[in-house]
Amino acid sequence: MVKLIEKQAFSNTLLSWFNLHGRQHLPWQINKTPYRVWVAEIMLQQTQVNTVIPYFQRFIQHFPDASDLARTTEEQVLHLWSGLGYYSRARNLHRAARLIQQQYHGNIPDNLVALQQLPGIGKSTAGAILACGFNKRAPILDGNVKRVLTRLYGIAEWPGKKSVENQLWQLADYHTPSQHIADYTQAIMDFGATLCIRSHPQCQQCPVNAICCAYQQGLTAQIPQKKVTNRLPMRTKTWLLLRYRQQLLLQKRPPTGIWGGLWCVPEIPEQATPAAIRQFCYQWHIDIHDLQFLPAFQRTFSHFHLNVFPVLITLSKKTIKCMEDQQQIWYNLRQPPALGIPAPVNSLLRSLL
Ligand code: SF4
Prior knowledge:
The protein is α+β, with helices and mostly antiparallel strands. It folds into two domains: 7-216, Endonuclease III, domain 1, CATH 1.10.340; 234-351, Nucleoside Triphosphate Pyrophosphohydrolase. The protein contains 14 helices and eight strands. The protein has helices at 7-21, 34-44, 49-62, 66-71, 74-81, 88-104, 112-116, 123-134, 143-152, 162-175, 181-195, 213-216, 274-283, 343-351; strands spanning 234-244, 247-252, 263-264, 267-269, 288-293, 297-300, 305-315, 328-332. Strands 1, 2, 3, 4, 5, 6, 7 and 8 form an eight-stranded mixed sheet that branches. Bound molecules: iron/sulfur cluster.
């Protein structure tokens, strides 16, 4: 076991730093409730604070509490989440709100076990809700905290390894104070997000640099160790923008997988030739008036790259017999309905206006 840093001195130093440099006026820190903390924590997973702020404000405006969220449709939740990515977060949030409504009369439960039984809430998120929302002592271990602790203690192994993660949970628990728990939790998250950042941490300004192993040993660039990843595979799709006047055909994607439950344009595998596209259209009784290739683009997801070749197909008649097994709608470009639509599809829709 590593030599422990004196915990009282560490938390006091962190709290003093937080008072001077921490973020204390974020929207979820104002009128703080467990519900607002929970929504913010879910939105902040894999996402920067500045990106989250407008989404959070819009979401809270529509659904001020868990009961409001429980009463709405998944479609409306996905609509407000459109562009934020990682859509399973939104679906889980909605499912969890319904369970909270059924099991706890709309009140967020205030214990670790009950919180972790809700969809999308892991141990660290549950800890953050307890600490920041209920002022109850609970450790957290998000990516920022992992980075701070691995550097402070000079832990050179990959933090995602189970044994290392267990060790980090023990350290997180050890350092979590009984007093000022909400401020401490926000402080250590802010410390990792703004000072002890991934590349080029600001060690010269760091109030704990004298006790930081990584800094003292010149290892801040090596710790935390990055996950060894294989090269991401490439997938290629041709997107069919089937347009009739001011309407475009959209299909609802299956609930799981990439953009699950969101509305996208029909797609066919690989980079289709004009002949293959015409063959597809013929098969589905699509009357092509005009066919135009739009600029291709690429998106990267956690486990693959996606190459997209969009094709705008103007129809002479709205007689598509096709794809009856799929939920589909004619999306009005001038009067868009409230649907969950991924950001790249949204950009294409806007470009057609
Ligand atoms: S000295 Fe540098 S690496 Fe160590 S905790 Fe401070 S900012 Fe992070």
